TrEMBL record:
It comes from the Bacteria. One of its GO terms (molecular function) is protein tyrosine phosphatase activity. This is Tyrosine-protein phosphatase. Belongs to the metallo-dependent hydrolases superfamily. CpsB/CapC family. Keywords: Hydrolase, Protein phosphatase. SUPFAM superfamilies: PHP domain-like (SSF89550). The keyword Membrane does not apply. The keyword Hydrolase applies. It catalyses: O-phospho-L-tyrosyl-[protein] + H2O = L-tyrosyl-[protein] + phosphate. InterPro entries: Caps_polysacc_synth_CpsB/CapC, Pol/histidinol_Pase-like. Its EC number is 3.1.3.48.
Amino acid sequence: MIDLHCHILPYIDDGPKTWSDFLEMARHAGKQGIKVIYTTPHHMNGYYINTKNDILKHVEQCNEQLKKANIHVQLYPGQEVQIHRDLFTALDKGEILTLNNGKYLLLELPSSYVPSYTHEVIYELLIKEITPIIVHPERNQGFIENCQLLFDIVLEGALVQITSGSIIGLFGRKIKSFSEKIIDHRLAHFIATDAHNTRSRTFTLNEAYETITKLYGIQQMYFFRENAELLHNGNQVHVEQPIPMRKKILGLF
Ligand SMILES: [Fe+2]
């Protein structure tokens, strides 16, 4: 399996703080059947600055460590970029890293609201042939309160990644229900772990795919798995026609 969103790089992010914790995380992923991990450290989120070249160097070093430790997991470079007015200046300066230097970028929104300039940023990225993947919108209060915003963003051309822990209820019942609502409305394109450690925020891709199979059937599970593979192989991912969402999700909150 392929994990497109993970904070496994040691020292530079809010993931492992030692080499041994890093190796433990990688071993854990391998046991879960995850053989390809996109390392996506935070960037411009107010706490972490991790520019493209620094990440590329670090990933190379980490892959060497995995080889030495005989852990059969391959790391690929990526970045989780917080939406920011200076995003395009950073892009021009070569500080932004798309997934494996391809055409997809993990874009994080603040957890409490959807900035008014989000549409503008998505539009400008698409013009530059970069497709933003909005990470974990199910945990964004702005989308929870006005889910039509998510529909509009997907209609504009952005893709959506749901966190595996949300699907299996690790963030509570409301987040799980909203994740399901997003899938029901064909607004989700990827599932990824966003793992930070081997305890509270670990690799739960298997569990999430099992839950999706139970809830929606095996086709939906393969839709997500294949999309991760298509992206990894540089191919066009599957996108369905999104269904508009009502402003308030009745009976949910
Ligand atoms: Fe993340």
